[in-house]
UniProtKB/TrEMBL annotation:
Highest taxon of source: Bacteria
Source species: Dictyobacter arantiisoli
Pfam families: LacI, Peripla_BP_3
Protein name: LacI family transcriptional regulator
Keywords in alphabetical order: DNA-binding, Transcription, Transcription regulation
Length: 334
């Protein structure tokens, strides 16, 4: 069975370098770390994580709290980018998908099984944030609360995204616009981006003197179909829709077609989600390019910097403002 000394000889580094790579006690160059990891793989070395945790008081495990029983393609991009960042820095990732009100995972953090936490689907008033603060456990947010003083987060600037979308549609001659938001359950839970998008929508509508209606929508094609039909009942003059969730897109297009309308000649669609998802529909959707990978990477990076004592004195707070990419689903009002 290979030992740390064997790893050091194979990698051509000092024994202390192997030790620091595994424990994370001191910074190691990326080149040296990769040499150690390669030697470990070649020799089939399996470190005793339990013994190391007892000595260092660290498990090198971070938890991602993502309250969703099913992960969409975009959500998987979040998880993949976080896992890649964690692995690069020698951390294991625990994915916890139970509902946010299920706080069993907090017992694991309290008992020392987890070094730090990344929170997602963050509510404006999130009980998980209060509990983690009480436990004095390092954590970061992908998303943000209403009061973010002292919190480290990365988020899409939904105010800017929605305002950019409405500005584009207004300039294209659309004066009656509908917003298709996330589910009613997420709005009731006050998930930050769901509330912010709705608020920004009506603020922009009012600012430009436009007419706007909105509706929540579950993640299914049929829900998308029924939502569009309902919005047309509220405002028959609708000529554009803003979509915050990709899964109803097929139903949205079907409903528009059943109304005898064409995309984009009669009705424009603009989305705020992953470009990969936007390009899967026919026609491809104009969209604000939701940066899933970048947000996941930054959220994990900020947490790891906290764990390794490299965080700046002031909490990092990053709002991303990706551009609008115009595709074939939108254009001037006929």
């Amino acid at each position: 069975m290979a030992t740390m000394s064997d790893i050091a000889r194979r990698a051509g580094v000092a024994l202390s370098t192997v030790s620091y790579t595994l424990s994370g006690k001191r910074p190691i160059s990326e080149e040296a770390r990769q040499k150690v990891y390669q030697a470990m793989e070649e020799l089939g070395y399996q470190p005793n994580f339990l013994a190391r945790a007892l000595v260092t008081k660290r498990t090198k495990i971070i938890a991602l709290l993502y309250p969703s029983y099913t992960l969409s393609s975009g959500q998987q991009e979040f998880v993949t980018s976080i896992a890649e960042m964690a692995t690069t820095h020698g951390y294991a990732l625990l994915l916890w998908t139970s509902p946010s009100e299920n706080l069993e995972v907090m017992n694991m953090t309290h008992q020392g099984f987890i070094d730090g936490v990344i929170l997602m689907e963050v509510a404006l008033h999130d009980a998980r944030v209060d509990l983690l603060r009480e436990q004095n456990l390092p954590f970061t947010l992908i998303g943000r609360c209403e009061n973010n003083e002292g919190l480290s987060f990365v988020d899409l600037d939904f105010d800017n995204a929605v305002e950019t979308t409405i500005d584009y549609l207004r300039a294209s001659g659309h004066t009656h616009i509908g917003l298709i938001n996330q589910s009613e359950a997420m709005l009731k839970r006050e998930v930050g981006y769901v509330v912010r998008a709705r608020t920004a929508f009506y603020r922009a509508i009012q600012h430009h003197g436009l007419s706007g209606v909105d509706s929540c929508c579950d993640e299914s094609e049929q829900a998308g179909y029924e939502t569009v039909m309902r919005l047309f009942e509220q405002d028959p003059e609708l000529s554009a829709f803003v979509l915050l969730t990709p899964w109803p897109s097929g139903g949205v297009l079907r409903a528009i077609s059943d109304k005898g309308l064409r995309v984009p000649e009669d009705t424009s669609l603009v989305a705020i989600f992953s470009p990969r998802m936007a390009e899967m529909t026919t026609p491809a959707l104009s969209s604000i390019e939701f940066p899933f990978n970048e947000m996941g990477r930054l959220g994990a990076q900020m947490l790891i910097q906290k764990l390794e004592g490299k965080e700046e004195e002031k909490a990092a707070q990053i709002l991303l403002k990706p551009p609008l990419t115009v595709r074939r689903s939108s254009g001037p009002r006929a």
